[in-house]
């Protein structure tokens, strides 16, 4: 494997002002992500997954360690350099309802990052068309507003926005956990399709081992701010060696999302797919 796209090295994040109230949310975390790779990050609530994603985005108070993107230290970038980095690193959040402005049309939502990166009006219009097509939304979606779409469709809009300026890495923080199972599977398939087409890498945060297995090449398991196990996605999610991962697996047995979806579809005999 060549050079990693992202290298997280011995990262420490602490919250709290005083020495006595300080809480270590990340404790010497190291993780690499390679171009075009999906690394799933699992762990129970409070284990530090979101904090790690936020640290990559420059949104967490890093006490020690480094985050490097394509070999460049991005741990503590000044605001302007961080804004420029948004061309390369984007994010998709969990909540497809709260993460999109309700007063902006889809066209405006998708044009905003294009304009911010200096892309002209006619190129933007063309790019929005391509993005809508890429995420499987109708061509006339641009004139509509987020509240006119379902949760799955909104998440497609959020994915289109993240893709707008062709990032190399997307931090996906629980991007499907607000969606029902069959919609989850379709959005995950979309993320994989986009990765095949564009070579984007994902840091995929989820508490759900089934979701992570569905999409990831490698999986890292977090427990109390540390990565306790990492490796090939199938090995970690089927035959984990760490006792904590084994407990996690027992507490959330993994259904096969595709098989569930097939069962559901054969039951409902192909209702229109709106997600
Ligand atoms: N801004 C903050 N100030 C203080 N503590 C915080 C802050 N953000 C996170 N924490 C703490 O850091 C720990 C890790 O939180 P984090 O949100 O990263 O966990 P998580 O694994 O993503 O959990 P969940 O699956 O519930 O989202 C938790 O104990 C949390 O309370």
Automatic annotation (TrEMBL):
Molecular functions per Gene Ontology = ATP binding; ATP hydrolysis activity
Q: A GO term (biological process) for this protein?
A: transmembrane transport
Record-annotated ABC transporter domain positions: 6-249
The cross-references to Pfam families, in alphabetical order and at most eight, read: ABC_tran (PF00005)
InterPro entries xrefs: AAA+_ATPase (IPR003593), ABC_transp_ATP-bind (IPR050319), ABC_transporter-like_ATP-bd (IPR003439), ABC_transporter-like_CS (IPR017871), P-loop_NTPase (IPR027417)
CDD domains, per the entry: ABC_NikE_OppD_transporters (cd03257)
Keyword list (alphabetical) reads: ATP-binding, Nucleotide-binding, Transport
Q: What name appears for this protein in its UniProt entry? A: ATP-binding cassette domain-containing protein
Electron transport as UniProt keyword:
no
Q: What superkingdom heads the lineage?
A: Bacteria
Q: Which family does it belong to?
A: Belongs to the ABC transporter superfamily.
């Amino acid at each position: 494997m060549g050079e990693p796209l992202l290298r997280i090295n011995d990262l420490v994040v602490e919250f709290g002002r005083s020495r006595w109230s300080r809480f270590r949310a990340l404790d010497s975390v190291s993780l690499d992500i390679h171009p075009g790779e999906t690394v799933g990050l699992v762990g129970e609530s409070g284990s530090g997954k979101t904090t790690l994603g936020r640290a990559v985005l420059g949104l967490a108070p890093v006490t020690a360690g480094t985050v490097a993107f394509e070999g460049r230290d991005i741990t503590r970038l000044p605001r302007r350099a961080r804004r420029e980095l948004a061309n390369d690193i984007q994010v998709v959040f969990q909540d497809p309802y709260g993460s999109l402005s309700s007063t902006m049309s889809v066209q405006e939502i998708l044009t905003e990052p294009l304009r911010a990166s200096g892309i002209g009006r006619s190129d933007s219009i063309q790019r929005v068309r391509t993005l809508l097509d890429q995420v499987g939304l109708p061509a006339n979606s641009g004139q509509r507003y987020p509240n006119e779409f379902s949760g799955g469709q909104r998440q497609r809009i959020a994915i289109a926005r993240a893709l707008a300026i062709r990032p190399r890495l997307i931090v996906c923080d629980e991007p499907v956990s607000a969606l029902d199972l069959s919609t989850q599977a379709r959005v995950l398939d979309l993320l994989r399709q986009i990765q095949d087409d564009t070579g984007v890498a994902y840091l995929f945060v989820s508490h759900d081992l089934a979701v992570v297995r569905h999409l990831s090449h490698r999986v890292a398991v977090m427990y109390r701010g540390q990565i306790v196990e990492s490796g090939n996605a199938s090995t970690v999610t089927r035959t984990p060696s760490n006792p904590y991962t084994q407990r996690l697996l027992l507490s959330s047995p993994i259904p096969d999302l595709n098989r569930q979806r097939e069962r559901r579809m054969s039951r409902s005999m192909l209702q229109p797919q709106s997600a």
